């Protein structure tokens, strides 16, 4: 019998007979490993534990207690779900399915009526029956013709058969008489899946393209232990309660209308108020720190982005150019930096002007795929809190520190405390995707690292995370659910000043090349509002809240004038106040103010009118307290002025 050679992650190599299974290989290493093994990867491709191997290569044993082992469990559950759906629904078509760290999903299409969320419980019962039978799951290889027969009149499976054909064969999983195209690896029998939950249904375009049919996606998850499922469901509940899309709908902050266009949010008055407050804060903060704010066009000649390199590196993320019919092609800008370069280049610059700081709340457009769009977090139109500083070489580290200190100030005002620093370098093994200048990269990366060391800040170094034109510092924050995302960046750029032939006149009267520093303090307005919405769970601090004070008269006839008088006083101080004039019961109006998470609810009746006072109830508190009108105005004014933080 011929021998197969397998190389293990530690570099060791062993020989096994042709037809050996990954389970047998695992047992040959250690009995305990054999017991925990659930699948393997050979040269990066999944194989079932009991699947005969006829080709050697690099092998990784996947165990049940690993993240990849959990994916195997979920892939198995996905196959069981498919079988249950096929048993329960006639004329059902199957799209894609997948298993990952978040769970698994199965896409379906039914010509008459799609599967609804109300039918998930019955589907779970059907899955439990299949699991109880402990049916073996076999791997079978079908010829292309036989695979096409299995696909039948299912248009999606026909496409998947073609996509998965290798050497005239297609790999299937078979449970009883049910056959499904193999995706990943699965456990040997249905009885191995014990703990799972069907979660929800939602629309999903076939292969993620908006031009394709909309399918029905069933989301689910599976675990090895009940306690892990319980913890996951609790986390999902918390995620739903913090989901900025859910809160955005409840508080009427924004909406996206597919009839107008996916990824193009409409800001309602409440959301616009939050955004406007942030924008005014940012502009004032930047102006106070020496930035000159500008407005630049959202369109530019395509040649500008060819010169900057964006067309070569980001073409797939840019919208198609608009042919103006006279040889000119206009492009919706994906980045603001070329526009700010034009501002710099409009005048002859002197060394006395440096550092020259330019900032803008600049609107940009990205051609995001429909499947990637999500509320305000992933959109096609966005406004970046953007800034570019032009400096001399000997000013780099000082300006870098100034920018970083400004970032920390902003974070403090928004009460953002959980963040880390990441220095992002180019990948030394894949330099062709970056600007070709080794000396520039070495100098820029050394300067960034030197500035961080000089400031005594902790950071991690990440190769392959740099922009194509230079290294950067990424500020990584924790979302409300503990996920990590980049909120702010500072990027050194020696490339664009070279490409655009930027100069300044030095003290010696000669031309010198500036260095460009890109920075964004709080990402885009869209992503930042989404982030804050989830962090605050919709209960925005007073200075950001769209409605800061709600005044409720006990009697519209007797107390309305007094309520309006207080309202006028507050609004004269630019406090966002309003009077609730609805003819509803007092308890309902108070609960409604709490539901809409208004920081201060004031109730005024006979006692308040006679005493020039208000009865104050803060959001989230049950008790009320009586305060004089001047004292309340002083309290709320200080709350807003301190960015709703306890003074340090």
From TrEMBL:
InterPro entries: aa-tRNA-synt_IIb (IPR002314), aa-tRNA-synth_II (IPR006195), aa-tRNA-synth_II/BPL/LPL (IPR045864), Anticodon-bd (IPR004154), Anticodon-bd_dom_sf (IPR036621), Beta-grasp_dom_sf (IPR012675), TGS (IPR004095), TGS-like (IPR012676). Pfam families: HGTP_anticodon (PF03129), TGS (PF02824), tRNA-synt_2b (PF00587). It is found in: Cytoplasm. Residues 269-541 form the Aminoacyl-transfer RNA synthetases class-II family profile domain. CDD domains: TGS_ThrRS, ThrRS_anticodon, ThrRS_core. It catalyses: tRNA(Thr) + L-threonine + ATP = L-threonyl-tRNA(Thr) + AMP + diphosphate + H(+). This is Threonine--tRNA ligase. It comes from Lentilactobacillus buchneri DSM 20057. The lineage of its organism: Bacteria, Bacillati, Bacillota, Bacilli, Lactobacillales.
